[in-house]
Design brief:
single chain, alpha/beta, binds glyoxylic acid, 5-stranded parallel beta sheet
Length: about 300
């Protein structure tokens, strides 16, 4: 069986070595843009940020494995993607625990007012502040996929579920902390605009670990400056890396991290994809096949 691997970073060699270990029966070929006009024939493709020209040539493969959780960067190619080839995303593969750590940290930092204490400490100020109360501190997690569910487990019991756009406003009104974990699709793009962010309670806190395009960035900034939203921890942005002139950098109530809330772990991912390839070879169905009509 032949696997074609594409990554634009310097990791391709390490991925190839891991695949050779996990699937000794497979032939692993790396492909680089400009390396040759034609793709070598293959049964499966394992890709990260591939060019559209490569995807067009994958019409004969049995599956395209995307080495990330969100597939928006792949689906945006639309017709360049062979319509009948299954696209498979990662299912957790070590991301759930990373997301849980990140979100828990951000929630506790706000809940226990470490952000305020950091600001005070920089001024040499020693002032105990009133504590937030748990009963006024509902956490709303938008998105109940594999990763969202793992984060909910980490946050503790007492989960109430809302669904669809009709219940969104009620959900937002009750969320003192909003954690965005939605997939990016045409329906969810710009979902958190000025009116939806304004529906959050006074002094709400926003955590975004999904995609920057879910949030209308100028609206979030305006609502933070006006004091309606207390602050935000943002791991994802419309343009990444976040441009140096972006006003978020100048806002002390916004904590910025460089898209690291859950990174792809190579060994876990290779083990998962190898298992799925074995299942497909044996005629078994696999999880995490993207439903293109839903967009995730
Ligand atoms: C990272 O953002 C991913 O989708 O894997």
């Amino acid at each position: 069986m032949r696997i074609l691997l594409y990554r634009p970073d310097s990791e391709a060699q390490a991925w190839t070595a891991d695949f050779s270990k996990m699937l000794p029966e497979a032939d692993i070929t790396q492909w680089r843009e400009g390396a040759s006009d034609k793709l070598p024939p293959c049964d499966y493709a394992v890709v990260w940020a591939p060019p559209a020209a490569m995807l067009r040539e994958l019409a004969e493969v049995k599956a395209i494995f995307h080495t990330g959780a969100g597939v928006d960067a792949l689906l945006k190619f639309g017709d360049a993607l062979p319509a009948h080839v299954p696209i498979v995303r990662l299912g957790d593969a070590g991301m759930g625990v990373q997301m849980a750590e990140y979100v828990l940290h951000a929630v506790l930092r706000y809940f226990r007012r470490f952000d305020d204490y950091e600001a005070q400490a920089r001024k040499g100020e020693w002032t105990p502040l009133p504590q937030h109360r748990k009963e006024n501190f509902s956490i709303g997690v938008l998105g109940m996929g594999v990763l969202g569910s793992r984060v909910l487990d980490a946050l503790g019991p007492g989960v109430q579920c809302f669904s669809g756009t009709t219940e969104l406003e009620t959900f937002l009104r009750g969320s003192r902390v909003l954690v965005n974990m939605l997939p990016l699709t045409p329906e969810t793009s710009n979902l958190l605009d000025r009116s939806r962010l304004s529906a959050l309670p006074h002094q709400a806190y926003v955590i975004n670990v999904a995609r920057g395009a879910h949030i209308a960035e100028p609206d979030l900034l305006t609502l933070i400056k006006s004091g309606h939203i207390a602050g935000a921890t943002l791991d994802v942005f419309r343009n990444e890396p976040l441009p140096v002139q972006h006003p978020f950098w100048q806002e002390p109530r916004i904590t910025i991290t460089p898209h690291i809330s859950a990174t792809t772990l190579r060994q876990e991912s290779v083990a998962q994809i190898a298992g799925k390839i074995r299942d497909l070879q044996a005629g078994r169905t696999i999880a995490d096949v993207v439903d293109r009509s839903r967009g995730y």
